UniProtKB/TrEMBL annotation:
It catalyses: L-aspartate + ATP = 4-phospho-L-aspartate + ADP. It comes from the Bacteria. GO terms for biological process: homoserine biosynthetic process; lysine biosynthetic process via diaminopimelate; threonine biosynthetic process. This is Aspartokinase. NCBIfam families: asp_kinases. Pfam families: AA_kinase, ACT_9. GO terms for cellular component: cytosol. Keywords: Amino-acid biosynthesis, ATP-binding, Kinase, Nucleotide-binding, Transferase. ATP binds at K5, F6, G7, G8, T219, D220, R230. Belongs to the aspartokinase family. Residues 378-435 form the Aspartokinase ACT domain. It is an enzyme of class 2 (transferase). Transmembrane segments: none annotated.
Length: 439
């Protein structure tokens, strides 16, 4: 059995949903189809929640009506028969009645999460109605019956696996299952979600839960590119990469894949394929445990980085200094991305600035601190990059024109990271693109 996940743009128009139907009915293998909400819907739901949170019911109502109008236009283009159209209208009515009721009751965070869940529920129900109309047998599964997270918002993979396997066992003869990405239940049994972009994570968790043969992520681009196509000309999709390489890239801004969605597939060794709904025959990107290819494969950049230089002469020959520093970041639940050290100083980068003032204040009690804002991490990823001859030299040579604030090399076999001022990002990426992909 394999997993096929389709993102918002792949289901965002009636004709696209028909393409998805074609794709999931190819081949004999059984599949669990995971769908996102129609593109734009989750953003709308977020804005409805925000209007309700600020007690602006008029605004909330107009946003609900706007979204409602979109669905009322969508379903007659998706479905032909009166029976199917009537069913779709019922589905839409039910979900918008629910949203409208919220205008009358007091708002809280649990309700907000309920609002966010409506998008995936709508898309899967409408898609299932399409399959019914076309007499394609498919089982509708509610992700709320098996997807769950614990009190730290971490997915409960074992529980998910037990529940999902039990549900699938009730349908031994069925081959197509439709379910929602993104949504789940939390430890209080409330409706919750896996955070924005979380449908990829659902797909990977479901793939791990049933030890699927493959986890296909269908989007609107032809795989993970070797550089950011919005910034650099002449990028190309990467044919294959290892889980480790993909994990390095997914975090550093390669928006095609939710960063958390690597580990479940990796843990159960389920190959992940990034494929293009608009060009189904294109190779896309295959992510698996081992790859033969050596050398630089991709470059990614992450903006909004702040570098903190922490200097103390007491660091000289002292032990426990780094612990003291890290404990402050831990106390304020602020993840550190890059680190470089010298004898008397350590530089770290963070991207979550919510507790910066407190962190600086506490560091200031035992060191001097300098802060550089608006920095960009450029991450160069490739199999064995750290061991390939000349890789680091090529990176440094290529960046000769730009002041490099930090370099992190040797932390993993797959990554060299450099920190530069964001104003040099575009040129730096272009230069690296030209220089690193010739060999
Ligand atoms: N619909 C959700 C979002 O827009 C989840 C997803 O599409 O992955 O964030
Ligand atoms: Mg996505």
């Amino acid at each position: 059995m394999k997993i096929m996940k389709f993102g918002g743009t792949s289901v965002g128009r009636p004709e696209r949903m028909h393409q998805v139907k074609d794709l999931i009915t190819r081949g004999d293998e059984s599949k669990i189809v995971v769908l996102s909400a129609l593109s734009g819907t989750t953003n709308s739901l977020v804005s409805i929640g925000e209007a309700l949170a600020s007690a602006d019911k008029v605004l909330a109502k107009s946003r609900i009506d706007e979204l409602h109008a979109h669905y009322k236009e969508f379903y007659p283009q998706l479905l032909k028969s009166d029976v199917a159209r009537e069913k779709a209208l019922e589905i839409i009515k039910e979900h918008f009645e629910f949203l409208n009721i919220l205008l009358k009751i007091s708002f809280n965070e649990a309700i907000n999460r309920d609002i966010l869940a409506q998008g995936e529920l709508l898309s899967t129900k409408l898609f299932h109605t399409l399959l019914e109309e076309l007499e394609i047998p498919a089982v509708f599964l509610s992700a709320l019956d098996f997807m769950s997270i614990d009190e730290n918002s971490e997915p409960e993979l074992q529980k998910i696996s037990d529940k999902l396997k039990a549900i699938l066992a009730q349908h031994p003869d069925d081959t197509i299952f439709i379910t929602q990405g993104f949504i789940c239940k939390n430890h209080l049994n409330e409706v919750d979600n896996l955070k924005r972009g979380g449908s990829d994570y659902t797909a990977s968790l479901v793939a791990a839960a049933i030890q699927a043969t493959a986890c296909e992520i269908w989007t609107d681009i032809d795989g993970m590119h070797n550089n950011d196509p919005r910034i650099v000309d002449k990028t190309r999709p990467i044919a294959e990469m290892s889980f480790d390489e993909a994990a390095e890239l997914a975090y550093f801004g390669a928006k095609i894949l939710h960063p958390a969605s690597i580990w479940p597939a990796q843990q159960f060794n389920v190959p992940v394929k990034l494929l293009n709904t608009m060009q189904p025959e294109a190779h896309g990107t295959l992510i698996k445990a081992e790859v033969d290819s050596v050398g630089v494969k991709a470059i990614a950049a992450k903006d909004g980085i702040t570098a903190i230089k922490i200097k103390s002469s007491r660091m000289l020959l002292a032990y426990g200094f780094l612990r003291k520093v890290f404990e402050i970041f831990e106390k304020y639940k602020t993840p550190i991305d890059m680190i470089t050290t010298s004898e008397v100083a350590v530089s770290v980068t963070i991207d979550d600035l919510s507790h910066l003032e407190h962190i600086l204040e506490e560091l200031g009690t035992f060191c001097s601190v300098e802060v550089d804002r608006d920095q960009t991490i450029i991450c160069i990823v490739g199999n064995m990059v750290s061991e390939s001859k000349g890789a680091i030299q090529s990176v440094i040579d290529s960046l000769i024109e730009y002041p490099v604030r930090m370099v992190s090399f040797g932390g993993s076999r797959h990554n060299v990271s450099v920190l530069i001022d964001s104003k040099f990002k575009k040129e730096a990426l272009q230069s690296l693109n030209q220089d690193l992909f010739t060999w």
